[in-house]
Design goal:
The chain is mostly helical. It is built from twelve helices and no strands. Helices cover 76% and strands 0% of the residues.
Length: 267
């Protein structure tokens, strides 16, 4: 028997066994917590598991990726089962839709479209996606329909990326750097005005400009901020340890004392 076919048989076997576990949990005499869940309550766990999976990938630990992938997959099956119970759709419907979408959006593989590289693939993908949105009566825009629930820096990165595809972008990083400086000046003016709304607006503009600068430099701002936060946290932990060795707490020290310790830690 073909190895791939045998692997597929084992995969189907495990999938059906997992569905049996899910249905047992959701049965009338099953787990009270699992039976109480709704699409609204389960969505936060899906987000958490997606972030945990992303973190496992970033850490490069295959065993943890395997575990987190399973956790997320189970929650996706759980969500599909909730909608099946309501009679809205079944998992088979979702699988058919994504299969058809992948075939439709890869005409260079499944039809007779020629591409010269990944840039052509992305351009075709966006054009096909726009037509799909138009058929659904959705707003036709180069920005697409990015979910507002995305982390804001990541959303800023993706919005800027999509706008750049139609030529709405700075020519180079120096142009964005000038924009960052401009937003800094406007923020200073807002601070002097004392208007909290104006300050909030200008902080948002500054962060968006900073995200655009990162994009123009070939850096994902979400990833860069994660690393920056990790670095700050490591150094702060060391500061706390150093202060604790002196028998004091961080709140006991002046800012000047803390600055001196911080600078030594950074070396």
């Amino acid at each position: 028997m073909d190895k791939n076919h045998e692997a597929d048989r084992e995969l189907v076997k495990e999938f059906l066994a997992l569905m049996d576990v899910l249905r047992r949990l959701r049965a009338p005499d099953g787990c009270p917590w699992d039976r109480e869940q709704t699409p609204e309550t389960i969505k936060k766990y899906i987000l958490e598991e997606a972030h945990e999976l992303t973190e496992a990938v970033e850490q490069g630990k295959a065993s943890e990726v395997c575990e987190e992938l399973g956790d997320l997959y189970f929650l996706l099956l759980f969500l599909a089962d909730l909608y099946q119970e309501k009679g809205d759709f079944v998992l088979k419907d979702a699988l058919e839709k994504i299969k058809e979408k992948m075939i439709r959006r890869h005409p260079h593989i499944f039809a007779h479209v020629t591409v010269r590289g990944s840039e052509d693939v992305v351009a075709n993908w966006q054009a096909i996606k726009a037509k799909e949105a138009e058929k659904k009566g959705e707003r036709k825009s180069a920005l697409g329909n990015l979910p507002r629930s995305l982390p804001s820096l990541q959303r800023a990165f993706r919005i800027g990326e999509r706008a750049s595809r139609v030529g709405f972008d700075w020519q180079d990083a120096d142009g964005v750097l000038d924009k960052v400086r401009e937003e800094m000046d406007e923020l200073e003016h807002a601070i002097r005005s004392g208007s909290s709304k104006e300050i909030e607006d200008e902080v948002g503009d500054l962060l968006f400009a900073a995200a655009s600068l990162a994009r123009k430099l070939g850096i994902n701002p979400e990833d860069a901020l994660k690393k920056g936060l990790d670095k700050f946290s490591r150094r702060f932990y060391r500061l706390e340890e150093q202060v604790a060795r002196s028998g004091r707490q961080v709140s006991d020290l002046s800012m000047d004392e803390l600055d001196r310790i911080w600078e030594n830690i950074k070396v």
